[in-house]
Each structure stands twice: as C-alpha cells, then as structure tokens.
Amino acid sequence: MLINELEQANIAALKARDQVTRAVLSVVINRYRMNAIELKSQGKEATDADLIKIISKVIKELDEEKEGNIKTGRLEEAKAIDQQKAVIEKYLPKMMSEDEIRAVIAKLEDKSMPSVMKYFKANYDGQVDMSLVSKIARGQ
What is the model's pTM? Predict the structure, then answer.
C-alpha cells in the first residue's frame, strides 16, 4: 500500500535529518491514520484512494498557505512550501489529460452528465480532475 511507502520515506527523512520532508510526510501520515480510525469505526477499511484524497487536500492547503506567505512578503516560507509540495506530489497518480478524458467519454454509451460523472468517480477517482470532466462532458 501507498501508506507503507510514505512511512518508509518518513523514516528515511528522519535518519537524514530532513525536517522539510519529515514535516509534510508526518502531516499526511497522521491525517491518514485519523481517517483510518474513523473509517474503521464505520466498519470500512482505508484505501490508497483515501490517502490520495488526503495528499490532494494537503497540497491544496499548502497552495493557500503559499499565497498567504507571498502576499505578506515571506518568500523563504513560500520556497519551503514548494519543497514540501514536491515531496508529496510524487505520491499522486498521474492525472488524466483532456484528450484521455475525451476518449473515455467517447466510449461511454450513456453520455448524460450524471452517468459520465458517476463513471469517472467510480473508475478514475484520484486520477482525474472532476471539474475538468464536467467541463468536457458539457462541451460534448
């Protein structure tokens, strides 16, 4: 599982005394563990898809934090955020391109908006920007 890779990278960062890497990996791992506990109480198991959602959310939060730092002139902090993003972005799956999305939609029998969105959510969750799918589906 992907969480095992993150935990190994976190240990390696600890041994290398890489505080930037360790900080962001610790945040992701802790959020995953909290999510896993919550899911377990509901009788569900945490998956790699859940971890990918957590990583995506952390990246979005880092982007917002970076914007705030740039606005207030704290460029060193903004640079550190870029480093943190680079560490966790490599654990995200490759996102589908517009052409790939169009090709999948073209193969679908039912091209209605609810059907297309449901199909992508079920089969490509975490690998596609759902707003992009919506935009493309409306354009076809």
Answer: 0.73
